[in-house]
Design goal:
The structure holds 2 protein chains of 2 kinds. By secondary structure, chain A is an all-alpha fold. Chain A is built from 12 helices and 2 strands. Chain A has a two-stranded antiparallel ribbon with strand order 1-2. In chain A, strand 1 and strand 2 (43-44) form a beta hairpin. Chain A is globular. The model of chain A has no long low-confidence stretch (mean pLDDT 84). Chain B is α+β, with helices and mostly antiparallel strands. Chain B has 19 helices and 14 strands. Chain B has helices spanning 7-36, 46-54, 57-89, 95-107, 110-123, 131-138, 142-152, 156-164, 169-180, 182-197, 201-206, 215-222, 227-256, 269-296, 434-441, 454-487, 494-517, 533-549, 554-602, and strands at 298-303, 306-308, 313-317, 322-324, 327-337, 342-350, 354-356, 359-362, 370-375, 385-387, 391-403, 411-415, 418-430, 450-453. In chain B, the strands form 3 sheets. In chain B, strands 1, 4, 5, 6, 9 and 10 form a 6-stranded mixed sheet that branches. A 4-stranded antiparallel sheet of chain B has the order 2-3-8-7, with no helix packed on it. In chain B, helix 3 packs parallel to helix 6 (131-138) and helix 13 (227-256) runs antiparallel to helix 14. Residues 597-603 of chain B have low confidence and may be disordered. Classes of the chains: A mainly alpha, B alpha+beta. The interface between A and B is large, with 82 and 87 residues.
């Protein structure tokens, strides 16, 4: 009993602030999203706000773009990071400094990345100069559908390293004996990967997915600063929608967007977690 | 497996590694290159000068952001270490539920938690204060997650053994858990710092005034327009995360991978040295740039436009209109410019409709705007400016250098390329503004002339020894910092370290106090940078020529002697100080070398 009391005492400061700043206000936000008006005249309207939100074109664009970004970005970053981790597995032992180097883009401040994107992809940026030198038609990078791919590239450049570090450490914890056994049994590299590497990597892969997701949402602030308040339609993200709603303080809209985003993420991650738990359970 | 690789594969993998490195490191070099080699020109430190020395605003915002980040990192570390210990090493009802809740919120993006945070901050009346940025970040759940993971890796047996030795929970935490969980701790520090350093959404949502923004947003939204200066700002923004990363990269890689190894601690000597040097240099830059921007602020006289109701046009003195590159500009004195809301000049393009006497007519001016008529130095867009407070007129003597062809009825002597005139004014308006006096003396022709007020020259001469001392004091902290760096990483040098730190603080304080005393006359400052040595030597040359040519009066003879004497004193102070510092440094190094030698003898 004494230990329980101590445990609570230790987490109390953190928990108090956490409840105050995150959990309680979130309940308020959920209530806001289900009601209309403010103060005492706040009335429960059920899912009215939600159905109205799904008719709002700006919101649909923003939500769709965000999901598209995640839908393309997450698989690509995981595959890329996996490939790099496999490639680097031998190199990392030889050059221990390689791993930190991969994290370097991650520490570049947002100001720098924003300016770099401008430097590379503005009208007279390096990308266009390169095209000019080759005699190809110039591209309008940031004010066309290409903006989406530029931002995806930025995300990959910044956050792949993080996933690589996670996956690489997962790879390095697989006992070398397993590979030796596979070799003795005469397994092909592909078979080794399928039956030795993959089954032991689900947890690392899940962690990489979670942190890539966190990093993807961090990347939206770069998109926000690069594009300004009214970027090209293809990169109009939830970020922009929220910010514009902040400017005219539309609580209902803000709340509905927050809750919807929460639901999507919770659902997606919950499914992934179940899948990984099942795989891990099968392993042990 | 690696052994069986063919050479082709090896070459391929090496090439791929090189390509990867290029892709990762390329942008960093791009920033460096853009800041130091502006487009079209060669190597130039101008942009770096503008950010680090010409004005303190970037550095002041930088320090404020650093303080914010330190607060967030410190609070987050304390809270998450405590909570991590609670979650990892104690059992209590509801533990799993709370931890799960933390995990869920950890994964949620800012976009979801921004609105709840905004609501509660509004309720607590904390919006539009810096606390709005700090408090929610303190309780972010990522730190607790990482610390719990790394504390869980510490075997319970160690803790039980410690408990048998009657160690209190805090001793266990401080002596066992924290050293064992250092990778997780490093990870918390770096990730929280990055998060704080890169805040974008929170300031924009919670703060109204752009002057309250931290560095990340204020550089991106209100920063300079010159790309080279922007890139130099980027260097400033890159410095702290890069330093932290280089110092903690080993722990960070392990910590991110949620691994702990209890191999011996790495010394981090280089990291602490780099940190000390960066801190000292940036502090000095802040002190210096405060003084530089104060001294280099343009002194101006302004006028408000007069409105002509009948014609619907406005008029200003003709001298307020500046001709530059085929177009006409006015300079508007504006508050709230730059990152900190200082009083700055803004260049406005305009057209002269007609001229009547000494006034010119135009339209589209701001009715209550203060437009610069005369200034102490050539004007530039976005420079700091101070409106002069005119004092009582006093007698003064002017020395005028004019190219040939300017006939003036005064005592004169010809020098190379022009002539020097001596003008004794019985009444001269104070403070001295070169442009205004030239306009009064030589209407329309004064552009290529230089006018010196001997009163200002005397003030300058009195300041010279002070400048010598400032020069020495600029070098002193660097020398002490070198001493500190040498003592870092040596065990049992606690006293020496404390001494060096004390000396460092004292020298920085001295520099600060001394810089407060410096008050250079604005009319003798170079137009662009304060370190334009060519300008000073040219000015001094002309002054000496003039003073020696007109040395018939006692006053001017004395002034010439004073100038020469003060120059020697300043030089002597500077050289003497440098010699003292150099010997001090050498002695300090020698003292350091003797110690291990003695130990050997004893052993």
């Amino acid at each position: 009993m004494k230990r329980a009391w101590r445990g609570y005492a230790l987490i109390a400061p953190m928990l108090a602030g956490f409840l105050l700043f995150y959990v309680v206000p979130f309940a308020q936000v959920v209530w806001d999203s289900l009601s209309q008006g403010t103060g005492k005249s706040q009335l429960f309207v059920g899912l009215d706000n939600y159905s109205r939100m799904f008719q709002n074109e700006m919101f649909l664009t923003a939500f769709g773009n965000t999901l598209k970004f995640l839908g393309i970005g997450l698989p690509v970053i995981l595959l890329l990071a996996y490939a790099l981790a496999l490639f680097l597995k031998s190199q990392a032992r030889r050059f221990p400094l390689l791993r930190p180097v991969f994290l370097l883009p991650y520490v570049m401040p947002v100001t720098d990345t924003v300016l770099l994107v401008d430097l590379l992809f503005s009208d007279r940026g390096l990308a266009n100069q390169f095209l000019l030198a080759l005699g190809l038609p110039l591209g309008d990078w940031l004010q066309s559908p290409a903006a989406f791919w530029v931002m995806l590239l930025l995300y990959l450049w910044k956050s792949t390293g993080y996933a690589v570090v996670l996956l690489l450490s997962g790879l390095l914890t697989i006992p070398p004996e397993h590979y030796q056994v596979a070799q003795v049994e005469g397994a092909s590299p592909l078979q080794t990967f399928r039956w030795v590497t993959l089954p032991q990597m689900w947890y690392a892969l899940f962690l990489a997915l979670v942190f890539s997701l966190i990093n993807a949402f961090k990347c939206f602030r770069e998109i926000f600063l690069v594009g300004g308040e009214h970027p090209h339609e293809s990169v109009y993200m939830l970020q922009h929608f929220l910010n514009n709603s902040f400017e005219n303080l539309n609580y209902q809209r803000l709340s509905v967007a927050s809750v919807l985003l929460f639901l999507v993420i919770a659902l997606g991650l919950g499914l992934c977690a179940l899948w990984v738990l099942r795989k891990e359970g099968a392993r042990s | 497996m690696t052994r069986h690789r063919s050479p082709v594969l090896r070459v391929f993998s090496a090439a791929a590694t090189a390509l990867l490195l290029l892709a990762i490191l390329g942008p960093f070099f791009q920033v460096l290159q853009g800041a130091l080699f502006p487009q079209g020109t060669g190597f130039s430190l101008e942009a770096v000068y503008k950010v680090f020395l010409a004005t303190p605003e970037y550095l002041l915002v930088f320090w404020r952001t650093i303080a914010l980040c330190a607060l967030m990192v410190g609070g987050q570390v304390v809270l998450s270490v405590l909570a991590g210990m609670g979650f990892a090493k104690y059992d209590f009802p509801g533990k799993k539920l709370w931890f799960f809740l933390l995990l869920v919120v950890m994964v949620l993006p800012l976009q979801v938690t921004l609105v709840p945070n905004f609501r509660i901050l509004g309720t607590l009346n904390l919006l539009d204060t810096q606390w709005a940025l700090v408090l929610p970040a303190l309780f972010a759940p990522l730190g607790t997650f990482l610390m719990t993971q790394s504390f869980q890796a510490v075997p319970d047996e160690i803790l039980e053994a410690a408990q048998l030795d009657v160690a209190s929970p805090f001793t266990i935490l401080w002596r066992i858990l924290v050293p064992c969980g250092k990778n997780g701790l490093a990870c918390v520090i770096v990730l929280t710092f990055l998060e704080a350093w890169n805040m974008v959404e929170q300031p924009m949502a919670y703060l109204k005034k752009p002057t309250q923004y931290p560095l990340s947003v204020s550089l991106a939204t209100t920063g300079a327009r010159d790309p080279a200066v922007q890139l130099a700002c980027c260097l400033l923004a890159l410095l702290p995360p890069l330093l932290l990363f280089l110092g903690l990269h080993k722990e960070l890689v392990q910590g991110i991978a949620l691994q702990e190894d209890w191999a011996g601690e790495s010394p981090h000597r280089g990291f602490f040295r780099a940190l000390a040097v960066a801190l000292v240099v940036l502090t000095e830059c802040t002190l210096l740039s405060t003084a530089v921007s104060r001294e280099m602020a343009v002194e101006v006289v302004t006028d408000r436009p007069r409105y002509d109701r009948e014609l619907g046009i406005q008029s200003l003195p003709l001298d307020a209109f500046h001709q530059e590159e085929d177009s006409t500009f006015l300079y508007l004195l504006e508050e709230g410019g730059g990152l900190l809301g200082s009083t700055q000049l803004r260049r406005v393009a305009t057209d002269i409709l007609s001229v009547e006497g000494d006034r010119a007519f135009t339209t589209g001016l701001e009715e209550q705007g203060a437009y610069v008529v005369y200034a102490s130095r050539p004007l530039e867009d976005e420079t700091l400016a101070v409106e002069t407070v005119s004092g009582d007129p006093a007698p003064d003597t002017y020395l005028l250098w004019a190219p040939e062809g300017v006939g003036l009825d005064a005592l004169s002597t010809s020098v190379e390329g022009g002539a020097l005139y001596l003008l004794s004014q019985e009444e001269a308006s104070q403070p001295f503004l070169e442009e205004r006096e030239l306009a009064a003396l030589l209407p329309g022709k004064g552009e290529s002339c230089r006018l010196f007020s001997l009163g200002d020259v005397e003030q300058f001469a009195h300041q010279l020894p002070l400048l010598g001392a400032v020069g020495v004091l600029i070098l002193t902290p660097l020398v002490f910092c070198a001493g500190l760096c040498l003592s870092i990483g040596k065990r049992g040098k606690g006293k020496a370290k404390a001494l060096w730190c004390l000396l460092l603080a004292a020298s920085l304080g001295g520099l600060f106090l001394l810089l407060q005393k410096v008050a250079l006359p604005a009319s003798l400052m170079p137009p662009e940078t304060i370190f334009d040595l060519g300008y000073y030597s040219e000015t001094l040359q002309r002054l000496e020529n003039g003073l020696s040519a007109f040395s018939d009066s006692d006053l001017r003879g004395e002034l010439a002697a004073l100038l020469a004497r003060q120059k020697t004193i300043a030089l002597a102070i500077f050289v003497g100080g440098c010699i003292v510092l150099g010997t001090g440094l050498l002695l300090g190094m020698g003292y350091k070398r003797r110690k291990p030698f003695r130990k050997e003898k004893i052993g």
